[in-house]
# Entry
Amino acid sequence: MKPWIRQFQASEILDSRGNPTLSVQCVLTDQSIHEAGIPSGASTGSREAHELRDGDPSRYRGLGVLQAIRAVEGELSDAIVAQQPEDQSGLDRLMIELDGTPGKNRLGANSLLGCSIAFSRALAHRRKLPLYRSLHPGQAPTLIPVPYLNIWNGGVHAQWQGSDFQEYMIVPWGAASFRDALRWSSEIYHALQSELKKSHLPTGVGDEGGFAPPTTSNRAPIEFIAQAIEKSGFGPGADVAIALDLAASGFYESSGYLLRTEKRSLDSPGMVEYCASLVKDYPFLISLEDPLSESDSESWPSLAERVGSQVQIIGDDLYCTNPQLIENGIRTRQANSVLIKPNQIGTVSETQAAIGTAVQGGWRVMLSHRSGETLDAFIADFVVASHAGQIKAGAPARGERIAKYNRLLAIEQELGREARYAGPELIRLYSRGTRS
# Structure
């Protein structure tokens, strides 16, 4: 077999929060270089694969990734170059076996994922295919996802200065194309900015580019956003839906759910009732992500039974892109959808397996960025390849968020008439009416 992989290199770069992260380059014998930038989360599940950090307080507050660089350029590069894997599963299996721990604790999920994504780009180059085609060989993916754009940041993404809930998203499902969906979203984003200014509220942004003003109610952002949708000439529900990521693990304590914004605490049944009331009161609300804590898993089936036929109930922290955890969630009927983040599991192949497990169990899938992002737009190609139909990548602002949306614009343009926007499919599943 003629060698085609020359080496893997790595470097320390900064993510969108100003923290160090890993950049990995796969260098081929034809002299081409294929790169991956690895994101990092702030709101992380306890079951996520291990992110290798240096822990040296004299550099980057202990967050440096020099150990990860050594892992990539040493053990991982040596083993990969020696074996010259021919496909994605072969590369990923080699790295997983080399690490030898269930959670990528020895070499780090960031190291493995950097090599895995860089290799996927090298493989696409070798096959002379666009990345979204190469990730799904043998089939021509044409489904362009509905974007979930986080235009109001709260929780840890706003340093707990505003709402308890982490993300308030607009979902332009009524658009005819992704290009129209992105335009609508930009117009609504700026309309929201104007509404906040009229109310003398600050318009600074949080980690994911959404506005992060103070508020005295977790419902207030929903009302502001619905008003911005209407001011932009669209109908809440008919044209643009709203979705929430409560990230409830962030405000869950031993005594229950502490809603600081509303100065009250709820037990588990109370939180289930709270979420059900949101669904009842806002027919244009179509998705609840992490509405309950990962430590309160026994309460999830109750909420799923109450409102699962009306909205998406998405598990993130509870499943961490792990096929075994997703399979358990399907078996116990905890949710009906799952969030997919490649860095939670550590390789492209395992991420694909997680998606396959969810789809086989009848669940919907959403691909997601992280709060600490890079300009790498891998998930844009990946969501098209996976036929998931849904992506969240932050607000229609800030370069690391826009990179994903702009890549999807390019894919849609490249596909031309073959491109199919996923909005109508989502409307058929979850449309419940419009703002009264």
Summary: The first strand starts at residue 5 and ends at 14. The chain has a mean pLDDT of 95. The two ends are 66 Å apart (CA to CA). The chain has two domains: 5-128, 143-430.
